[in-house]
Amino acid sequence: MANFSDLIAVNGSAAQIGLLQHAAEARSRGDDFYRGVPQVLPAAVYITDSNGHTTFSNEAAAALWGCRLELGQSEWCGSWNLFWREGRRLLHGECPMPLALMEGRAVRGMEVMAERPDGSRPPFLPFPTPLHESSAALWGR
Fold first, then answer.
1. What is the structure's pLDDT at 117?
2. Which residues make Cβ contacts (< 8 Å) with residue 28, sequence separation at least 6?
3. Looking at the DSSP assignment, which residues form a beta bridge with residue 17?
4. In angstroms, rounded to a whole number, what is the distance separating the alpha carbons of residues 113 and 83?
5. Would you tell me how many other CB atoms lie within 10 Å of the CB of residue 138?
6. Which of 4, 22, 32, 49 is least surrounded by Cβ atoms within 10 Å, i.e. has the fewest?
7. Nearest-angstrom CA–CA distance, 116 and 65
8. Using an 8 Å Cβ cutoff, are 3 and 55 in contact?
9. What is the mean pLDDT of residues 81-95?
10. Which residue would you say has higher pLDDT here, 83 or 127?
11. How many other C-beta atoms are found inside a 10 Å radius of the C-beta of residue 139?
């Protein structure tokens, strides 16, 4: 399970991100109630540290990517490659999670495809969102 004191950025819907923000705040106060929230969400959610290493991913994320990540080793995303909807591969600097972490802001409006190990490319809308403490500092920095 992710260590919420090290939580930097998550990928999920706006409602899920709000729930995860509350979970991170509750966890910092020692409240374990929200500890299992990310795992049971029906949408793909993953968490990275400030270097982009994945520290948590749920079952829905594994289903989207077509594989399970090696936590702490996988960087930025679980897909083999990301592509724009028209089929052009995203360069590293164009990928949503690195943009969110490097710029310290939520990234919205990108329509991309995640390439799976079997070569299929399901489309999805990423919502990478750096989480901030109430003091506006980025979690884990």
1. 92
2. 4, 5, 133
3. none
4. 5
5. 15
6. 32
7. 5
8. yes
9. 88
10. 83
11. 22
CA angle 64, 67, 73 (to 5 degrees): 115
Q: How many CB atoms lie within 10 A of CB 104?
A: 12
Q: How many CB atoms lie within 10 A of CB 20?
A: 23
Is residue 110 a contact partner of residue 94, using CB atoms and an 8 Å limit? Answer: no
Sequence-ordered list of residues with C-beta below 8 angstroms from that of 132, at least 6 positions apart, any chain = 138, 139
- pLDDT of amino acid 6: 38
The rounded distance, in Å, linking the Cα atoms of 37 and 19 is: 8
Is the whole model's pTM more than 0.70, yes or no? no
* pLDDT over threshold 80, residue 88: yes
Alpha helices, DSSP H only, in the chain? Answer: 14-28, 37-40, 59-65, 96-103
